[in-house]
Specification:
Length: 147
């Protein structure tokens, strides 16, 4: 087996439930979450490069540390076994909010941080059950009210 196949099997095993059937909505929500992690994790390492460049320009280590924290969180979500899927999803959404809030705080509203906030809301609505899926909209409202 290749590295990519092993990687995708580990993430799918950790982030999906074998008991769910294809007719169940949670099956599709969990598969969307697992697929997002599979393709997002390699991109997280590529996204570290702009933060390191930002650190070089501003002489501030804060953005690079936030990026490293988010990448560590995504690695934790993808590879730590025996964690509930709902807990993985909550940690993932919290990481998305940490990243978007850091961009909003350090770079400002003229950056893509507002798009990240919108993406957090849309993604949360898709992967969480109906009751939990709407709380990120309230978090976005509060963050936008602050700025």
């Amino acid at each position: 087996m290749g590295i990519w196949l092993n990687y995708t099997n580990i993430v799918k095993r950790n982030c999906t439930n074998e008991k769910d059937t294809q007719q169940d909505l949670m099956y599709w929500r969990n598969n969307l979450f697992a697929s997002t992690l599979i393709y997002l994790l390699p991109l997280c390492f590529i996204a570290l490069l702009p933060s390191l460049y930002w650190r070089y320009i501003t002489r501030s280590l804060s953005v690079a540390l936030v990026d490293l924290l988010v990448v560590a969180g995504v690695v934790f979500i993808a590879f730590v076994p025996h964690l509930k899927i709902a807990t993985r999803k909550i940690i993932f959404v919290v990481n998305l909010y940490i990243f978007s809030f850091a961009i909003l705080y350090f770079v400002g509203t003229s950056s893509s941080s507002l798009i990240y906030l919108l993406a957090c809301t849309l993604f949360s609505t898709l992967i969480f059950p109906n009751v939990k899926g709407y709380w990120p909209a309230w978090v976005n409202f509060f963050i936008c009210f602050l700025f």
